[in-house]
Design brief:
330 residues; 2 domains; 8-stranded mixed sheet; alpha/beta
Length: 330
Amino acid sequence: MDPPFKEGDIPFTEGTISFEIAGVRKPCSTYYKVYGDLKSNKTPVVCAHGGPGGSCAFTSDFGVLWPRYGIPVIVYDQMGCGKSTNLDDEKAGDETFWVASLFVEELENLLRHFQFGENRPYNLLGLSWGSMLLADFATTQPKGLQRLVLGCPFASMDLVMEGMRLRVLELPIDVQKAINEGIEKGQWNTDAFRAAFTVYFQHALCRANPMPERLRRFSDYMTMRTTARDTSNPTMIGTCPIATSKTVGSLRNFNLIPRLHQINVKTLAFNGEFDQAHDVAVQPFLDLVPSIRWYTFAGASHILTYESEELREKCFKLVGDFLDHKDIAA
């Protein structure tokens, strides 16, 4: 499936923002891209991609909100990802460095750059890990935040692992066996485990058949990873592509549940029927965020905007209508 628009079809500007990080020798910067005109009378939305370790390639599709709703869209690559500064040479495998607070600080730095705050409102949209990051930030009740969109979110790392476990149980018995044996033996770079994980990927991560070419490299990365904590993703989530208590990294104690009641803006959460972000991981948001709507896309999984044009269009409309203050289905 092709992207919803070609590069250049929607006007954009791009640049980098200096980001000083204690304990890092090299100068660091965050890459960003702005679709549309920030001088528009519509509130801009800042989008955070998943991973950790993804890139704004996964959020750029929401640039369609500019021509369709007049909403300016800001996407960015998180530190260590995409066109932002790569720190693998200094911080590979450092669990004290690759923590959620680093990415919250980076987000705050980006918001200051664009002068968002009490006198210049903004909205936030996150996907997967990006939703965890933005929900974490939103619990601090930041000035200027108006609306929050949580795409395929997880309320805690424990619920990430529980959701994955439940999705594995939906797979054929022989696939379950190959996954469980690989996890128990710490051997997830074998052909047997990779083949089994591919089945899991096509069940709970992206159900498109054939898989979109622009997603294939991500799939290959997930199935070819080893036991090395060589980038932010395995350092934070763990070296096994199906996270477990034995393999999880620096996010092992990440838990938003005690603070979700502090989110004080209107919030939209969505996930897919077969999503790796299982309902058990989303339910705490519904239970605890004071003003929230939750929508589940039938037949979809985690990266649902890559699964079909119909799902993608439904997602764009759901998000666009919510950010444009229109009524949406609960």
